Amino acid sequence: MVTSTHETSHRIFQDHPEVLTPVFEALGLPPPVKADIEAITPDATEVKPLERRVDTVLKVVPSDGDAFLLAIEAQTAPADDKGVNWSYYTAYLQAKFHLPVLLVAVCRKKATATWAAGPFECRVGNWSTLVLRPFVLGPDTVPRITDESDVARQPALATFAAIVHSESEGISGY
Prior knowledge:
33% of the residues lie in helices and 20% in strands. The model has no long low-confidence stretch (mean pLDDT 86). β4 (120-124) and β5 (127-132) form a beta hairpin. It is built from six helices and six strands; from the N terminus they run ααββαβαβββαα. The termini are far apart. It is of the alpha/beta class.
């Protein structure tokens, strides 16, 4: 149930933006001398269908721990909108399933892997509201598997390692 205290706690900023001054000061930001401040819709509902798909989502339920989700994204190159999209995916999955989410980026190029590690931040001044740090599986974190006996024992892992290293230097001897 919405209470008058709840409503006043946030609506005061709509009618009296000067109350924001201590917020800016606490963030170490100078309060804007002149600023247009207008209330915009707080509705976060999507009214038109937007296709947003994580490449793979797995629910992991360990026998000796708490369940979590793995959101796995294959990333071939840096993309300006990925930080925002990955933040959306992570927040959406956590809200929908009420489970923590580990975002894993699979990258074949070292430069892409370095970029994908983030952090991706939603920030104002020195304050970060949201910081996303994907776990990256790339050429620096996935070992090459070149021993034939290892390949025979772990063919799926060997295949994955070959994919991750498919654009690495010196791959001809792989």
